[in-house]
Design a protein that fits this description.
about 325 residues, homodimer, 9 strands, 12 helices, alpha/beta
Chain lengths: ~325, ~325
């Protein structure tokens, strides 16, 4: 494996030129495919691949039904402006079918991952006739896989398949020598818009990680509405990360003088440098109460809103 | 029914003299019984009854297992100092048996009420041979029963029994013309200690109303520990009411570098005049984070603490 290129060592233009050549050499006169999530890594790989292959790289965006409000449209729109056409694949029914009845956080993550690789993207890759698969793996992913923190990052290792033996596929991982800061530099040089870099961290299982208990379409819609309010309201806070979590517990509330056994949204907003330790941002009560009011007034069924006041550890950033 | 005596109209000494005479006339040379909870109403009735009847009034304190830390000892101690002996009846097993498997808030309340009246106090009254039952019913209870807000306040109506016909009992309700402020005046005049008046409101189903989901002995013990911390820490806040609520939802946490799928405590602290509307007290983040730290460090299994930021309505004061 090739050696790390630190952000300091990185010569962006030279790096892009080299990777473009490498991708062209690997793919030859065939075609390639990649999955775009809208994160910095997959966005950068998409731009790099299109610079190398043009229309011979097919980029798909999997609509899994557990994204944030307007997320697919926003990501596809960014790339349309950059002259890159992205195919949106509606796989909502498959993801919700896989999530049905599952309440354990680990099993939820597993259902999302397996559906993505086995049921949706795996099949797309096969059907596409592509010889190469481009992936946004970065050095941190490799380290974390080795350390056992992250699951294997490679699509085919996920499936327990040697892609070359099985299908004659080749995996191309052009960012594997970089860390996040290096990827950001390359992405910027490739013309990615600032909005893509400004985004706060967001978990792999998306909004399924933001509901305690089963991730049904209705419950995802509830937390999606609350998430939109929180992200819009706290954008200016400069906090490390902020989120809305839908609880499974029911709490008593009242509406129009009548008892309503309703739902609760928990808000978390974190001060942190590297996510290893974190403490709740000391937001003003004006901001907190305004958030609670907007959520209880506009998100159906929510009668109660709380704010996390514990630190990590013993809490974690996400609840699920 | 006799007319309301407002706090302004109330002549405390005269009121006490009259009620003492009435109780003596009703009970004659028989005996009476009453249940003391430690609340202002039942404490005032206990003092009034003992002034009238001395040892011929048997006062029982039902230990239901869902009280706060040290509560039975504290209440019995107050009365011992006032020369009133209170019999503690250990009914913990009966209450927990009745609460077993029940998660619905209304069914929990019902289980606590029914166990108290039918299974525990009802039987005690019968066995005591008392001719009269003293109760701390106040005018607000009557109003709320009429308005359908509260359940019937009368023990025997609870049981669907006309006590006089069935057992020859008589119910004596010496405080029924007063409201809370009037009762406080009478209680003070009867020598009740300030601690009894300073206490924040506490719900009838006690700590069973402070756990979402099943009220098992273990879960009650968890919320009891958190409640003790919150009540001690927020005593100086001068807030209307404050509480700890144990959630049923599990959230991810980490302890000693390892993942812990733990429990969450929600704190509520209310600013309110009459409990009809309320807003969260704007406690400082120093206080909030200190509370979260103490709870996660000392209450086993708790990895997360939140603070309520919604108002009533659409929230309610209690969650269950």
């Amino acid at each position: 494996m090739r050696k790390e290129i630190t952000s300091k060592q990185l010569k962006t233009d030279q790096f892009i030129q080299e990777k473009v050549k490498e991708i062209q050499a690997e793919v030859g006169d065939g075609t390639a495919i990649n999955a775009l999530s809208g994160g910095v890594d997959s966005s950068t790989v998409t731009m790099l691949g299109h610079r190398a292959l043009g229309a011979r790289l097919k980029t798909v965006f999997i609509q899994n039904g557990i994204m944030r409000e307007g997320e697919p449209e926003q990501v596809v729109g960014f790339f349309r402006k950059l002259g890159v056409s992205v195919e949106v694949v509606d796989a909502r029914a498959k993801f919700f079918a896989a999530l049905k009845g599952i309440t354990d956080p680990e099993e939820k993550r597993e259902a999302v991952t397996q559906t993505f690789y086995k049921d949706v993207f795996g099949k797309l890759v096969k059907r596409s006739g592509a010889k190469c698969l481009l992936q946004g793996t970065i050095l941190t992913d490799v380290d974390e896989t080795v350390a056992g923190i992250k699951r294997q990052h490679n699509v085919f290792e996920q499936l327990g398949i040697d892609p070359q033996k099985a299908f004659g596929y080749r995996i191309i991982e052009p960012l594997i020598q970089l860390r996040k800061d290096g990827v950001r530099k390359v992405g910027k040089a490739l013309g990615l818009p600032a909005e893509l870099f400004d985004r706060i961290p967001f978990p792999g299982p998306a909004l399924a990680a933001r509901v305690i208990g089963e991730a049904t379409p209705e419950r995802i819609e509830t937390v999606r509405k609350a998430t939109a309010i929180v992200e819009r309201s706290l954008k200016a806070s400069a906090a490390f990360q902020y989120m809305a979590i839908l609880h499974e517990d029911r709490v008593t509330g009242m509406r129009d003088g009548k008892r309503e056994f309703g739902q609760q949204i928990e808000l978390r907003c974190w001060d942190s440098v590297d996510a290893r330790t974190a403490s709740p941002t000391q937001l003003s009560f004006d901001v907190l109460q305004k958030l609670a009011r907007e959520i209880t007034e506009t998100v159906p069924g929510v009668v109660s809103v709380t704010y996390n006041i514990a630190s990590k550890p013993p809490s974690t950033i996400e609840a699920v």
